[in-house]
Amino acid sequence: MVKNLAAIACSLFIFAGVGACSSSLDVEPANGADSPFCTELGAILPVSLGGTLLRDTSPNSPGTKAWGDPAIVLRCGVAIPNSYSAASQFLTVNDINWYPEELEAGVRFTSMETIELVEVSIPMAYETTADILTELSSAISTLGG
To answer: Containing domain of residue 90, as a range?
Structure first.
C-alpha cells in the first residue's frame, strides 16, 4: 500500500513538473539581453512583482523575465522604441526615466538613459503600474542605471 502511494505521489509530481514546464511563456530576447548589465539585472529582479509570481520564459535568457497571468513581461537590452522622439514625455520613477507607449492590451514602458534599455509590458488587468515601476526602478538604480 505504501509503495502504491509513493508511486502515485511520484507520478503526480512528474505530471505537475511537466505541466509547469509547458506553462513557460515565449519571450523573444532583445539583442542586448546577454549583456553584463542585463545578466546582473536578471539576477536581482524580484520573485514577486505586482502581486504575481515569477514564471519561466522560453527561450531562457538572463534579460527576459515574466510574472503572472496575464504576464507582466520584461526585456532588457532593447532598442529605442520606434515611436520615441525628442519631444516624447517621460515618467520618472526613482530617478529612472520611463517612456510610456499605449498598447492594445496594456502599456509598455521603456527605461531611457540607462546602461541598457529595459522594457516592461504591463497588461490592463493590473490596476496600477506605479508599484511595478517602483520595484523595477529600484533594481535598475542599484546597478547604476
So the answer is: 25-142
Weakest-pLDDT range from 11-20, 67-76, 96-105 = 11-20
Query: Which residue type is seen at 121?
Result: S
The answer to whether the predicted template modeling score (pTM) of the entire model surpasses 0.85 is: no
| Over residues 82-111, mean pLDDT | 96
Grid cell locating 138: 529600484
| Count of the separate structural domains present in the chain | 1
Strands of the chain (E only): list them: 25-26, 48-49, 52-55, 57-58, 64-67, 72-78, 91-93, 96-103, 106-112, 117-123
Q: Is the dihedral of CA 92, 95, 101, 103 positive or negative?
A: negative
Confidence of residue 4 (pLDDT cuts 50, 70, 90): very low
